[in-house]
Design a protein that fits this description.
The strands form 15 sheets. The protein has a nine-stranded antiparallel β-sheet. It has a five-stranded mixed β-sheet with strand order 22-23-24-25-29. Strands 6-7-8-9 form a four-stranded antiparallel β-sheet, with no helix packed on it. Among the domains are: 723-814, no CATH class; 1357-1483, Methylamine Dehydrogenase, Chain H (7 Propeller). The protein is globular and about 135 Å long. It has 1483 residues and is of the alpha+beta class. A hairpin with a 4-residue loop joins strand 44 and strand 45. The protein contains 43 helices and 63 strands. WD repeats lie at residues 558-599, 1390-1423.
Length: 1483
């Protein structure tokens, strides 16, 4: 399940609007959204008012790396807010306009110049017709971005310069009319069933006309008789029948035409590169007669000779009043919109200054022949204008350094030092500022005491550059080999400076370049030792140098490049640095000597670059890093680190979002080599990324809060301060578990003793451990959490395993390697501060005033000062960030909200008052109306964090309690206790309880109460959490996130109620994968049936879900839908089982029944007779449990874990459809290695995937056992019997192995059942004993009694063990007595009583066995006689029978305590009854 990493981006924009040089423009049909693409690759979404067309920028979509050339709608449905964008680099993306998520993105080799969205016949939604720098026309699906088919040319194939698709009035098919750049007009007709498999589709006819490099081609929509073709110098009207010229229009002098369209059969609108629209009336005699309305040229003068008055007449101009010159042609588009039933025709224009203007063409469309009118635009706006409307202006990250009267110093470069929590910012005047990152963020965004302090937080200034600082690099981040104090900066003054971070002094100034420094990079770690101490710098004079930080001199100056440097690759083994330039040449330099080895061109050059990539990917395994702008390659510069400076920051941002994921994937056991030590496998809780859309802009900053990274850091700080003894007390290490595991191993008495001694010793040594823990720095101890190899308890485990296996070689596993203590800038750990900022920003202030007071006083949260600009990170590393200007659109909402009397009386300036009011409105209401994605992510984040903080001791953000918490850590204090100490203990305990309760209330508010409270505040369109996003995280790898997702999903499903859940089930049932018994047929199921069958559900618009049900457009999407469907239906089935299985409603409810798709496609969706859905869901879940590991479904994935978890939760619902023994054995197989993985399963840090699966499987087993104890026990007993039979025949089955491996688990399960469900187990005691004897290693019973080995079972009076003769007797529910002879390994059963056996006991010498049953009130003595000399079968017979007094009925109610039998000597037995009476009997 991709993209499950929870990241919350928050943007600090600063006072300057981002440059937005518009390259394409689009307005939605309903006039609510305007979209502009720019030359820097961003796309801006504007919110517009359909009536007045007043627009405010709402959101910026980041992801393209080249100018956005085309924007197009993606669906015919009005409310379906998706658009498709395409860029000059061949990238295409489908964006969701509501939340800015990128749904799909591809990179094609073809670059489009124009996209027309068209609804073809026989297709249910739009298709994109694309043309561009390639010789075909591509027809693409807007949602999957797959090429469906292409149209090729037979005659003069060439690039297509313009195309138009239309459906002729009398025909059923679609006609594509296109013109190539050489002036060949071509026509294709399409029937709508074309696909990739069919042979090439050639044009039906083609004709050469005199029209080169046409810019656009439009067919008249009114009579389809004329065609307008626009070229730069002139535009011409052609006859559609034979393509003869009817008339032409010259461009005004000094201008060139861009494109045009018909307004009526005899009027056209053409616009020019100067951004003006010209309206012309065409000569009527050219279009005379019926020809205007019909397409038959009945008039003989239709093609007559041209005469003077036949030229088109200009009757209107649309232009700006100021007529200023443009630096490049604007993007213009003619759109026909409809809102409220009226059509409007608008001309949009976006220019390079970022100004958007709109003309209403209808105002100008009626010709006034006497004079030419000029019309001004209806609307004129731009980002700058919107930004300047904001008062106070948006916050930047270093606003505290701004002196009110001076002009602001722009920020030009910045990096964030994670370990030190420092933000280093280079500015335009050459100064570099170093400041505490969390403090400066807190100052910009949150209210609190810090607002009153002057000069807080303190900052450090490094002065050394003259002029702008271009780039910064902290090499230690990229690789540990560099000095931690070194910071490198490059400026516009040609110099590279080396700084000492801690003292703030300038260590050296390298002046070797002859141009400004553009980029600083770190060479790979396997270069020669001398190069390893260097960093590489690139400058604008096309030179590259290697500067040695150790020797303080330039090692290599590579400066003979004729063109700008685009890529740098490394061949460390050959000592080569390979430099690629923008003209495609490649220079190979020797690093040590600085000698130019060779210059390559053409194909060879490309191959050499490609070869460098291969070697690097091997060497750099999973190395992980980065501080500088070249995040694209992490520590690996081989990936184009540097796609031209324009996009330096985009790539940085992308990588920042992907970094967390990469880190988690790479930190497998493979990375355990020398590489893994410096690498940081955990995602950083906070990264601050600089962001600018254009090199001229000052930087804005995006804070990426990684929820999972934050949780891990919080917990590891918490645990690293606890000693093993207190960890065990908190249930984080369990030695209990070890005992169950030890039972299944054969017993050598000394080994068990050594194990228990070892555990004892460890607890005594808690003090020493504490010391070792303290000596290690906090990154060291948990750095390899992913391997689980560094944690203390795993070492204990490893030690214990060694002792068990009698390994003599001592491992040095128990003493962690000591690294020097991290030198830091004397700050407290900043993880809590990061958490404080994030929770304060996400919390819904104002919904529950009491809770708000608790938050401020007890938990130490701070109220936000400004409405926060959040972002959304989507797949493929694309991102959407909100613009601060969206506030302008909320002013009405704000004005309507009631005023707070306290605010009005304060002496704040009015603009701050409105801002404060807006902020309060935002956090209580508007925040939750933005989009479902944001709501889901933010609720997940805050619930997960609240739960984490609740589980920590005393986790409050108040500074005083922070100090108290540091002083008072359980288990670290000395044992001295005097009165004051105790009193303090009590206060602390009370305080801790308050804090825990506060967090729990916070979690409850966001998990359960939020929707109703937000709606109560008057929110009209509260965006619900998305059920499917929660379902995908049902088994997220981070436990806290997983629990939050489960709680939120269940709360949301409960809130939907039966009707909502039914709608959900109906929606998703169609995606449930169909499994045959052996193999899954799902990928092709979708293609086997006619498209209409699946399309049944298209076009329904289900309000509750806010999601349009569409046919999945690609296989990947189908797969995603299927996995989501399995989890979602599984959850609904497990938690609200009646919804899925309710027999009565099933008939009409399963209209879209899934199974019928296989059998009876023809009749459509037949009514289902039974509750088929539950069966199919159960089948899908078991398939996921049992499918063997393969590349498509690896052994340990979240999906498989989710299936395991849901099988456990809903076992009672699924049971009728499951093969119980298969399921149980599958689960046992999964948790078989539990004891080797991690003894502690509750440890909150991310487990390895394997440990996680194991934990989930173990939990599921427990759930199944407690839900259906009888099924669990009988199935297990049956498997045990099968195994025993298989073992005797000498062919152990796979089931046998699963049972052998899972023995400890089975024992745990049974122990739990005896504890929880005493009476249910009593009915199946014989089966239970079979299982126990199979699972416990027999050697334990040689030396010890059953009550020592497995004490739980001895709580039953019906069980007795005689160590002397090594026999066990069990009285069954049917009145049978089962006698197990452990020596012979066999079991015989006697019919002893007519009802359940109440108690039985062996005599001390083992000669007699006494049994008693209350039903027939009989007490029998049994004696075993063996044959002669132990030969022959042993006989057991009844020696004596006594009748006993019947028991009072009252006493029978508690069968477990009914009666006990105690032998007083070898011949006498006492029967003790529950009512206290005792009776003696003699043999």
């Amino acid at each position: 399940m991709p993209g499950t990493n929870l990241i919350v981006p928050v943007v600090l924009w600063g006072k300057h609007a981002p440059t937005h040089c518009i390259s394409s423009v689009y307005l939605s049909r309903d006039q609510k959204t305007l979209v502009t693409g720019c030359y820097d690759g961003q796309i801006c979404i504007w919110q517009s008012d359909p009536e007045t067309l007043k627009m405010t920028p709402r959101c910026l979509l980041v992801g393209h790396t080249a100018p956005v050339t085309c924007l197009s709608r993606a669906s015919i449905i009005q409310d379906n807010n998706f658009i498709v964008s395409s860029s000059e680099a061949g990238e295409m993306c489908t964006w969701d306009l509501v939340d800015g998520k990128c749904r799909e993105s591809v990179k094609l080799t073809q670059v489009h110049t124009n996209i027309q969205a068209y609804h073809m016949c026989n297709s249910e939604d739009l298709r994109l017709f694309c043309n561009g720098y390639y010789a075909e026309i591509l027809i693409m699906d807007p949602f999957s971005l797959e090429i469906l088919f292409s149209l090729s040319s037979k005659m003069n194939p060439d690039w297509i310069s313009a195309l138009h698709v239309l459906r002729p009035s009398s025909r059923k098919d679609d006609v594509v009319l296109a013109i190539s750049i050489t002036g060949t007009v071509k026509v294709w007709s399409l029937l709508g069933h074309e696909n990739k498999q069919s042979e090439p589709i050639y044009e039906n006819e083609s004709k050469q006309i005199r029209c080169l490099n046409a810019l656009s081609l439009n067919c008249c929509a009114y009579n389809q008789r004329t065609v307008l073709i626009v070229c730069a110098k002139y535009c011409q009207i052609y006859d559609a029948g034979d393509f003869s010229v009817l008339c032409s229009i010259q461009a005004p002098s000094g201008e060139r035409w861009m494109s045009g369209d018909f307004l009526a059969p005899d009027r056209v609108l053409v616009w020019s590169t100067e951004g003006k629209g010209y309206l012309y009336k065409l000569p009527a005699n050219k279009l005379r007669g019926k020809a205007i309305n019909s397409s038959v040229p009945d008039h003989k003068g239709f093609h007559g000779p041209t005469v003077a008055h036949d030229s088109p007449v200009l009757f209107g101009i649309l232009s700006h009043t100021d007529n200023e010159l443009l630096s490049c042609p604007p993007a213009m588009r003619f759109v026909i919109t409809s809102s409220g039933g009226r059509q409007r025709r608008l001309l949009l224009r976006g220019d390079s200054a970022g100004v958007v203007s709109i003309w209403n063409v209808d105002d100008a469309a009626t010709p006034d022949l006497n004079k030419v009118n000029t019309y001004a635009p209806l609307v004129l706006t731009s980002m700058e204008i919107a930004w300047s409307d904001m008062n106070p202006s948006p916050v930047g990250i270093l606003d505290q350094l701004h002196v009110p009267d001076e002009s602001e110093i722009k920020l030009t470069a910045s990096i964030y030092l994670m370990a030190l929590n420092r933000l280093v910012v280079g500015r335009e005047d050459g100064s570099i500022v170093i400041v505490n990152a969390t403090h400066t963020v807190q100052l910009q965004l949150l209210h609190g005491r810090h607002q009153q302090l002057d000069d807080w937080p303190p900052h450090q200034l490094l002065l050394g550059h003259n002029g702008r600082v271009n780039c910064l690099l902290y090499p230690h981040h990229v690789h540990q080999r560099y000095d931690r104090a070194h910071l490198v900066s490059g400026g516009i003054d040609f110099a590279v400076c080396l700084w000492d971070l801690f003292s703030g002094s300038l260590l050296h100034r390298f002046c070797v370049h002859a141009g400004e420094i553009a980029q600083l990079i770190v060479p790979p770690h396997n270069c020669s030792p001398r190069i390893q101490k260097c960093i590489c710098s690139v400058a604008s004079d096309h030179s590259v140098t290697l500067l040695s930080l150790a020797e303080r001199k330039c090692v290599t100056l590579a400066s003979r490049h004729l063109f700008p440097v685009v890529t740098i690759k490394w061949r460390p083994a050959d000592d080569f640095m390979v430099v690629g330039c923008s003209d495609g040449t490649v220079y190979v330099w020797q690093m040590e000597t600085g000698h130019l080895d060779r210059v390559l061109h053409g194909m060879i050059a490309e191959e050499v670059l490609a070869a460098c990539d291969e070697t690097l990917s091997d060497d750099l395994g999973g190395s992980m890093s980065s501080g500088s702008g070249d995040l694209q390659g992490l520590a690996n510069p081989a990936v184009h680190f540097f796609r031209g400076l324009r996009h330096r920051n985009l790539t940085a941002m992308r990588a920042a979002t992907q970094r967390g994921l990469a880190a988690l994937q790479h930190a497998g056991p493979a990375a355990a080599g020398p590489l893994a030590a410096p690498a940081r496998p955990r995602p950083a809780p906070l990264t601050v990324q600089p962001f600018r859309s254009n090199p001229k802009d000052p930087e804005s900053h995006i804070l990426f809060f990684d929820i999972e990274g934050l949780i891990v850091e919080l917990l590891s700080e918490e645990y690293s301060a606890m000693s093993p003894a207190s960890l065990e007390a908190a249930g984080l290490i369990s030695s209990e578990y070890m005992k169950a595991a030890a039972l299944t191993q054969s017993a050598s008495p000394d080994a068990t003793k050594r194990i228990s001694d070892f555990f004892g010793r460890v607890k005594d040594k808690a003090g020493d451990m504490e010391r070792i823990l303290k000596e290690k720095d906090k990154h060291g101890i948990l750095a390899k959490m992913k391997e689980g190899a560094e944690t203390v308890q795993t070492k204990l485990q490893a030690k214990a395993e060694q002792l068990k296996n009698h390994l003599d070689n001592k491992d040095d596993g128990t003493t962690p390697k000591k690294r020097p203590k991290e030198m830091c800038l004397s700050d407290a750990p900043h993880t809590m501060e990061i958490a404080k900022i994030l929770v304060s920003l996400l919390h819904a202030w104002g919904l529950d005033p009491d809770l708000d007071r608790v938050c401020e006083s007890k938990l130490g949260l701070l109220r936000p000062m400004v409405p926060v600009c959040f972002g959304v990170v989507s797949r493929h590393g694309h991102m959407a960030v909100q613009l601060p200007t969206r506030l302008i659109s909320w002013t009405e909402a704000c004005a309507a909200a009631p005023d707070d009397p306290l605010l009005i009386t304060s002496d704040l300036p009015p603009e701050l008052l409105t801002q404060e009011k807006l902020t309060r409105l935002f956090s209580s209401k508007l925040h939750w109306e933005l989009s479902t994605t944001l709501t889901t992510n933010h609720l997940l984040s805050i619930v997960a964090l609240a739960n984490t903080l609740m589980s920590m001791s005393n986790a409050s953000f108040l500074p005083e309690s922070e100090m108290a918490r540091r002083l008072h850590r359980p288990s670290t204090r000395s044992s001295s206790s005097w009165a004051a100490e105790e009193e303090r203990e009590e206060q602390l305990a009370a305080q801790q309880a308050h804090i825990k309760q506060g967090w729990s209330l916070l979690a409850t508010l966001h998990c359960v109460l939020l929707p109703d409270k937000v709606v109560a505040t008057g929110a009209k369109n509260f965006k619900r959490p998305q059920v499917e996003m929660l379902a995908r995280r049902w088994q997220h790898h981070c436990l806290e996130v997983r629990e939050a997702a489960q709680a939120l999903l269940l709360a949301e499903l409960a809130r939907l109620g039966p009707k909502g859940r039914k709608a959900l089930v109906d929606n998703w049932a169609q995606y449930l994968p169909l499994y045959t018994h052996t193999e899954s047929i799902n990928p092709h199921a979708a293609q086997k049936e006619p498209a209409e069958k699946l399309a049944k559900t298209v076009d329904e618009f289900d309000e509750e879900e806010e999601e349009i049900v569409r046919k999945p457009s690609s296989l990947a999407e189908l797969k995603r839908k299927q996995t989501t469907a399995v989890v979602l239906l599984g959850v609904i089935g497990a938690e609200f089982g009646q919804d899925i299985t309710s027999e009565g409603a099933a008939g009409n409810k399963r209209r879209k029944d899934v199974d019928s798709r296989k059998s009876s496609v023809v009749e459509g969706f037949t009514l289902s007779s039974s509750n088929n859905l539950a069966r199919l869901t159960a089948l899908a879940l078991t398939h996921l449990l049992q499918a063997p590991a393969c590349p498509r479904l690896p052994a340990h994935t979240p999906l498989r874990r989710a299936a395991v978890d849901l099988l456990g939760r809903g076992f009672t619902v699924w049971e009728p459809y499951l093969d119980v023994s298969h399921v149980l054995l599958g689960l046992l197989e999964m948790c078989s290695d539990a004891d080797k993985l991690v003894p502690s399963m509750t440890y909150g840090l991310p487990l390895t995937a394997q440990a996680d699966s194991c934990r989930t499987a173990r939990h599921a087993l427990t759930l199944i056992a407690t839900a259906r104890p009888a099924a669990f026990i009988t199935t297990m007993a049956r498997e045990v019997a099968r195994c025993a039979a298989a073992a005797q025949s000498g062919q152990p089955s796979p089931a046998y192995h699963a049972l052998q491996k899972g023995r400890a688990e089975v024992l745990r399960g049974i122990e739990l059942l005896i504890e929880k469900m005493h009476s249910e187990v009593a009915e199946l005691l014989v089966e239970v004993m079979d299982i126990i004897l199979h699972c416990v290693d027999q050697s334990h019973l040689k030396s010890k009694g059953l009550n020592e080995v497995f004490p739980a079972i001895c709580r039953y009076n019906q069980v007795s063990h005689c160590p002397a003769t090594r026999r066990i007797a069990v009285g069954s529910h049917t009145g049978q007595l089962a006698l197990y002879e452990l020596r012979a390994g066999r079991c015989q059963s006697l019919a002893a009583h007519s009802g359940p056996v109440t108690a039985c006991a062996f005599s001390p010498d083992g000669r007699y066995l006494v049994s008693y049953a209350t039903t027939d009130n009989r007490l029998s003595f049994w004696q075993s006689t063996s044959g002669m000399f132990g030969l022959g079968a042993a006989q057991t017979r009844c020696v004596k029978c006594y009748s006993t007094a019947p028991m009072a009925d009252v006493a029978r109610l508690n069968p477990a305590r009914l009666a006990r039998l105690v032998w007083t000597n070898s011949r006498t037995v006492t029967l003790m009854l529950a009512d206290g009476s005792e009776t003696r009997f003699n043999v």
